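User: Before I run my own analysis I want an independent prediction to cross-check against. Here's the chain; please return only the structure tokens and, at the end, one sentence I can use as a sanity check.
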Amino acid sequence: SSGINAEYGARRWFALMYLLVVFLVAPLSLLGLSLVHSGLLLGVVALFVLLLLAIVSLNFLQSHAPHWLPSILKNWYFLPEWMRSLEPMDRVITAVLGRIPCCRKILNPSSTQNGITSITSPATQQPQMNGLESVPEKGLVLIEKTTTI
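Assistant: Structure tokens:
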């Protein structure tokens, strides 16, 4: 849970997408496959398990025994960007939702809370906190508290 929060916490749409996929799309897909034919369901689940096993094995080998792998498999850069990163999907979803007036406030958090101003940088699309400094070992550290008039 903390790994998901740390990796995708800046993407405000990820939580809703996660809930929709895990609790709506996946169960309905499995139900639909089981209603069509049980053999089809077993085949799809078996392929999914094999893919998951291959990914876990490759991650393990990349971190513990990279010398056993060919050079192309030592990292995930052989895959297209949309298969190894949420950045392309993030650009599309934020562009679409940015056109909806009620979603602009959610996607662009330029607000002041408790005297600390949060500004979204257009170059990186990552929130930058005025008065806060990111220290990897300690998270966010308060340097100075800003006030707005």
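Sanity check: Confidence is low (pLDDT under 50) at residues 111-147.
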